[in-house]
Amino acid sequence: MSKFILECEEEGFDAAPVEEYFSSAVDSDAEICAELVFTDEEGIRDLNRRERDKDAVTDVLSFPNLDGIKGKPLRKADFPYDLDEEGRLFLGSVVVCEARAREQAEEYGHSLRRELYYLIVHGLFHLLGYDHEDEMEKAEMRREEERALSAMNIARDKV
């Protein structure tokens, strides 16, 4: 079992459920880390415009550091230039728009907590190589997301 570290400076955010799940779900001989950033609508729109050439607010953006890793064991030896100063393998960054998460939680009829964790898990699966470009990929990614949220005891609770 690898150790997964979710680096987040947001006060009050509990990364433990995410770290526990991904520590057991990712096959690695290295400590793995990812960055989580919360931002507002202006911040995510700016990132979306600069990085994806889309001038729109979105709920979550992922910036993977590694390519071609979906379903593969992550070995330090395969990524010697992707280790941070502490020897951890850096997967990338996930940026979540809190305002959009709040709107979606209300729209879908569940708690803000559930929506935030869903967006974080969604972003982390992108870092691990999952995507939803077609219906088959979308269904596979959704299964993995629901498996993770279920293991983390984050249900589709009502507000």
Automatic annotation (TrEMBL):
Pfam family membership, one: YbeY
GO MF annotation, one: RNA endonuclease activity
Main enzyme class: hydrolase
Comment on bound cofactor: Binds 1 zinc ion.
Source superkingdom: Bacteria
Localization annotation: Cytoplasm
Keywords for this protein: Cytoplasm, Endonuclease, Hydrolase, Metal-binding, Nuclease, Ribosome biogenesis, rRNA processing, Zinc
Family annotation (InterPro entries): MetalPrtase_cat_dom_sf_prd (IPR023091), YbeY (IPR002036)
GO biological process terms on file: rRNA processing
SUPFAM superfamilies according to UniProt: Metalloproteases ('zincins'), catalytic domain
Names of required cofactors: Zn(2+)
Annotated EC: 3.1.-.-
Annotated residues for binding of Zn(2+): H122, H126, H132
GO cellular component, one term: cytoplasm
The family this protein is said to belong to: Belongs to the endoribonuclease YbeY family.
Classification via HAMAP family: Endoribonucl_YbeY
Role this protein plays: Single strand-specific metallo-endoribonuclease involved in late-stage 70S ribosome quality control and in maturation of the 3' terminus of the 16S rRNA.
Protein known as: Endoribonuclease YbeY
Species of the source: Candidatus Borkfalkia excrementavium
Lineage: Bacteria, Bacillati, Bacillota, Clostridia, Christensenellales
Gene name of this polypeptide: ybeY
